[in-house]
Design goal:
The protein has 13 helices and 4 strands. It is an all-alpha fold and about 325 residues long. The protein has one domain. Strands 1-2 form a two-stranded antiparallel ribbon. Helix 2 packs across helix 12, helix 8 packs across helix 12 and helix 9 packs across helix 13. The radius of gyration is 20 Å and the shape is globular. Bound molecules: fe (ii) ion (2 copies). One fe (ii) ion binds next to helix 8 and helix 9. One fe (ii) ion binds next to loops.
Length: about 325
């Protein structure tokens, strides 16, 4: 599968397989597994990472098919209360909205080490930091909030009363390479979370509504893959233990300051509140965990193929380490 082609479902099925009027846990998990096989394969992830050097040279946003907005209907949601589904949509709108802030923080962390990647995420800026041309990541992501807002309006019958988040600004320490490492892990985690959430929402939807969520999913998988693969090249010395230790540090060190913006605990708490987690039935929580697991299994399998030789062929030898060349696990 390429980023723009998805196999068409058989007659009577939708993109997730058989559509049930009131799916239970097992049926929803089957749908999640089908969606994972359709959208998240190791071959597809490979294709998305191979695309990155090309996008450095000639950035081209992925084209979306035309959306038949008039055919969207609340009947295309099943297995979850419409109010809860709309509350989740509102949470995604608030989270996606400050994309300019996200891209500019990422650009600042990247630019002294990897100017091409900084441009891919944050575009070009003038001496005052004004954006002259947005990066490809921003151009693709900025489509999401208007689309989600239209979905919300079609399903709830009213415009979203959104309260967009404030993106955490660039906050350098005396070790910029370690800052970039932590920031990059956070970015990968949020792209992965968004991909899993849209895939999960597709399991509870059908028809044109499901197809729109599929476009969001394809974008998030694309970005997650590029960030992950680039990070594996840029921090070739890392292994699973170092990643786990950085994540554990971020969790443990911030445990006593859970409201500290930017900590993983803060992000997790904010997201569960934002996505109306307290309205979720137990089976919704379990199926979301299943989606996280299904997608991560593919990511780990694909990660095994990211050998130093392969990454060197893709991005070049010896990634620059800049002036803050110290262990990223600091
Ligand atoms: Fe997004
Ligand atoms: Fe994203």
């Amino acid at each position: 599968m390429t980023a723009t082609s998805v196999h068409l479902p058989a007659a009577g099925d939708d993109l997730a397989g058989p559509w049930w009027p009131a799916p239970g846990l097992v049926q929803t998990n089957h749908r999640i597994a089908t969606l994972t096989r359709r959208y998240v394969t190791a071959e597809h992830l490979c294709d998305r990472l191979n695309d990155l050097p090309r996008q450095f040279q000639t950035p081209q946003p992925r084209r979306w098919p035309r959306i038949a907005w008039g055919t969207l209907h609340p009947d295309q949601v099943s297995g979850i209360c419409l109010d809860t589904f709309c509350a989740i949509l509102l949470g995604t709108i608030n989270t996606e909205a400050p994309i300019r802030g996200y891209t500019q923080a990422s650009r600042q962390y990247l630019e002294q080490f990897y100017p091409q990647m900084a441009q891919f995420v944050g575009g070009t800026v003038n001496a005052d930091g004004q954006v002259l041309a947005p990066g490809l990541w921003e151009r693709e992501e900025k489509r999401h909030t208007p689309v989600l807002s239209l979905l919300y309006q079609r399903l709830s019958g009213e415009p979203p009363q959104s309260v967009p988040h404030t993106a955490r600004p660039y906050t350098p320490s005396d070790d910029p390479r370690a800052d970039l490492y932590r920031h990059g892990l956070h970015r990968i985690a949020t792209e992965y979370g968004a991909a899993c959430l849209y895939l999960w929402m597709m399991a509870y939807t059908t028809g044109p509504l499901q197809a729109v969520l599929g476009e969001l999913l394809i974008d998030e998988i694309n970005h997650m893959t590029k960030f992950w693969g680039f990070g594996r090249w840029a921090y070739g010395e890392t292994n699973v233990g170092m990643i786990a230790s950085t994540l554990a540090q971020a969790m443990v060190q911030k445990w006593r300051q859970p409201n500290l913006q930017g900590s993983l605990i803060h992000t997790l708490r904010r997201m569960t509140a934002e996505l109306a987690w307290d309205q979720w039935h137990l089976r919704h929580r379990l199926t979301l965990l299943y989606a996280f697991d299904q997608v991560m299994r593919v990511l780990w399998r694909w990660d095994q193929t990211l050998t130093p030789t392969y990454l060197t062929n893709l991005f070049g030898p010896n990634p620059p380490t800049g002036r803050g060349d110290r262990s990223p696990s600091r």
